[in-house]
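Lecture notes, unit on protein representations.

Consider one protein chain, 368 amino acids long.
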Amino acid sequence: MQNSTQSLTVIALQKFRKNFWGVFSFGYIVVLLFISVFAYVLAPDNSKNANQMHLSINSKPPGFKVQMLVVPLDEKPITSFLNYIEGFPNTVTEIPIQSYSIVSDTIEYVEYTSESSLKVVKQIALDKFSGETDIKIAANTYIKEQIFYLGTDKYGRDLLSRMLVGSRVSISIGFVAVFISLIVGLFFGAIGGYFGGKIDAFVMWLVNIIWSIPTLLLVIAITLALGKGFWQVFIAVGLTMWVEVARVVRGQVISIKEMQYVTAARALGFGDFRTIFNHILPNIMAPVIVISAANFASAILVESGLSFLGLGAQPPIPSWGSIIKDHYSYIILGKPYLAMVPGVAIMLLTLAFMMMGNALRDALDVKE
């Protein structure tokens, strides 16, 4: 008879795999992370911030199709690998059209408009299409049918592309805010719980002061102090979320700082900070991991609220909260999908992090 021993990590992974909704949520988050990283590769509109505007086709429903005349620019900007991360510069001018015809060496087209009385007929010469010698070939090459799978927003931008690029803000706010909250929370919680006395009293005083201020008001205050912007929001959200981590870490440190292995570390002459970071913190990370998953969801919701209030990522940077802000009035104007699409995306991502956190809590519970 063979006795096999398994580490707590292996046991936790086995328990996590048995939780269907936890694994499903983890897979959903990984897929969304992949989409956010390669957003400009997947987005139909790969211009920077997916900001190609076509005012003539604003607020169109999902599945809207239109013929698009693409006119190359005279000077094409230089592209590089960074464009796959930051977006590609515009190299063409896109013109939605209703119809076109070939007249001599020109393309005669009717610009798209919802009002028949406002139809405008224009012409474009062959020399606008560099390298083309036949106007018919140029028409077949530069006039294509374009589908807007999620429709267009009030500025005529592709909503699907804006959603894909906007996912970066929600995903990155979670990582950066949780990272900041972990750094600050682990430090204050560990030294407060380990040293006790006046240090612990000061830490708890600081935690209680920050805890007593409504989160959204505190974030708004920090955001206004640091200024509106992309990274300012990340820092502001992270600096308001560390108190939950600090309270959990402090309680865990107090409960195990008199354990035998901690006493042995002190007897061997190890310094306080070495004992804390090498021996205590690694043994209390289970509840910290769980609370970090919950903080991911909270950070996403806070950022969405700030963007809705106009204090988040500033235009033209897309974020799910700012998309709701731009279109919430359309809920009563017969086009609710413009606000519901980003709202559902926020709900699903938040739900995924909460369900994964619950699964981690069950998997890391040593009592079961």
